[in-house]
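Sequence, please.
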């Protein structure tokens, strides 16, 4: 947390550790993630999620394809002033995330079981996030209806996604021109990590 220049206290750390303990316990039965062991989850899941915190914009956030609650749960823990919606089509995973919300007493999190194409919230979101969800050619059209005016999309990627950008259809080329690719430094991870930041309008935060 100090390497990422993120403020923390004992209560916050306890919640983050409890989240990893729950994930490790449920993972043994439900196979929620391929990462095994809490010591490996710290960097691969927790710090990887938190590394993008400076780019989370506005008060309302949706995590599309949240899976085991990543990156939504760690970011919701450190940003209690923001409202998070965690969306996934896998009922097994949303059951786990609902249990996490209860045990961590996260009053700023709503969990939704459903597909992104069919989801319509009461209002659109300032930040739409996806991590290990899909290729950019799918992410851009599937999430565009969720982004509020002036909002942005954040998509976690490993290596610089040059192939994904090159494979975008012509109909999305103008969308891709508004993408900014940022390099993320994640403590404990030597592999490349990048964040795709995209705004549907030139007036967005990107």
């Amino acid at each position: 947390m100090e390497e990422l220049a993120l403020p923390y206290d004992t209560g916050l750390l306890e919640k983050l550790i409890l989240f990893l303990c729950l994930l490790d316990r449920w993972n043994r039965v439900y196979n929620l993630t391929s990462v095994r062991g809490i010591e490996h989850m710290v960097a691969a899941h927790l710090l990887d999620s938190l590394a993008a915190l400076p780019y989370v914009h506005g008060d309302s956030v949706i995590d599309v394809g949240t899976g085991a609650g990543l990156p939504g749960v760690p970011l919701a823990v450190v940003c209690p002033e923001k409202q998070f919606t965690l969306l996934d089509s896998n009922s097994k995973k949303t059951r786990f995330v609902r249990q996490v919300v209860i045990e961590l007493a996260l009053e700023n999190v709503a969990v939704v079981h459903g597909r992104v194409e069919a989801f319509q919230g009461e209002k659109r979101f300032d930040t739409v996030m996806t991590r290990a969800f899909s290729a950019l050619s799918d992410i851009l059209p599937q999430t565009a209806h969720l982004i509020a005016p002036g909002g942005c999309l954040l998509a976690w990627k490993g290596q610089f996604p040059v192939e994904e950008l090159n494979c975008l259809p012509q109909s999305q080329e103008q969308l891709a021109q508004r993408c900014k690719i940022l390099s993320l430094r994640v403590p404990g991870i030597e592999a490349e990590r990048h964040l795709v930041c995209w705004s549907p309008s030139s007036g967005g935060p990107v």
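The longest helix spans residues 10-30.
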